[in-house]
């Protein structure tokens, strides 16, 4: 009943005023194309723009009001086909070059030949409903995000802005300006930001756990030494002090990674450049570790001098060994060697390896792998920080999986000290 009244009122209005009519609510300026003075500007605009005539849409909406409809959204919800009918009333007047590029059209005739009603998707239908509601409510401007589609059918997220106002500010449906912006990059950035926020939330939880674990040992050992020190044997006291040293070092290492990450985020991190014995730094890292954790890790190779920062070299090696202990296999080993120009430190384990699609992602900060049962997960900074430090020192950190083994390889430029030694050996 309602639909028949709407159709009847609509036919009377269209018969009286025509497709480009004026109505009491929706004024029309009467033109159907862009003036010559503005045509060049229109074509040169870097934003995709459609010029459309919604006059008949305005008349049809007025017919709805005359038929007693007061809630357009509810009406479209009850009669979804009416949306398609209303879309079919839109008349395309012109498009600019940017619009042709956006939808992949060779010329304007390709766009003009498209039937909006026939090409409707669920996404575009929603956008048209919002446009019609804006007209219904007398709003002269609208902004909508939806998924657009090129002429070849490729979908892309976009931002639609519509202006239905004349220069005097009145609603003018005869020359509706619609601009569409491809927001693919923005959407991708939003996804990355959401992932970063989620990862940082996980980082905070992980840092809290990892710092709490050694702090618990530090507090417990300190309290025991304070309250029971007089009754403890020298061996027991020595064990307590070793626990304090080891756990304090663990906390310091975690804090060090966090400080480096914070400085890296704001571009304030600096490294020294000096001759560094890589083998000696790796030895120092292993010797200062908890022997129970690294006693099974052999260090092979020989003294190799690179150009770098000794503190940062140790930090990288420490993170690589920690990563192998947390995520690698049971057999872990460290190997140091050099070629004619580069010093290499390889941390190798016989774990299952990292999936191909994750082999670069693991070097992003706040990314965490799956821990080995019984071990806590790393805080998700070590590998990202380590590669960043390697790059600052003129080197690199890479991952590969060969012959059933994971290989993390730190490469740093040789210092002249080691280069000269290599040359002397080759001359002899």
UniProtKB/TrEMBL annotation:
SUPFAM superfamilies, sorted: ATPase domain of HSP90 chaperone/DNA topoisomerase II/histidine kinase, Homodimeric domain of signal transducing histidine kinase, PYP-like sensor domain (PAS domain)
Molecular functions per Gene Ontology: phosphorelay sensor kinase activity
Catalytic activity: ATP + protein L-histidine = ADP + protein N-phospho-L-histidine
Residue stretches making up the Histidine kinase domain: 206-416
Matches recorded under InterPro entries: HATPase_C_sf (IPR036890), HATPase_dom (IPR003594), His_kinase_dom (IPR005467), HisK_dim/P_dom (IPR003661), HisK_dim/P_sf (IPR036097), PAS (IPR000014), PAS-like_dom_sf (IPR035965), Sensor_HK_Regulatory (IPR050736)
Top EC class of this enzyme: transferase
EC identifiers of the protein: 2.7.13.3
Annotated keywords: Kinase, Phosphoprotein, Transferase, Two-component regulatory system
PANTHER family linked to this entry: HISTIDINE KINASE 1, TWO-COMPONENT HISTIDINE KINASE
Name of this chain's protein: histidine kinase
Organism lineage: unclassified sequences, metagenomes, ecological metagenomes
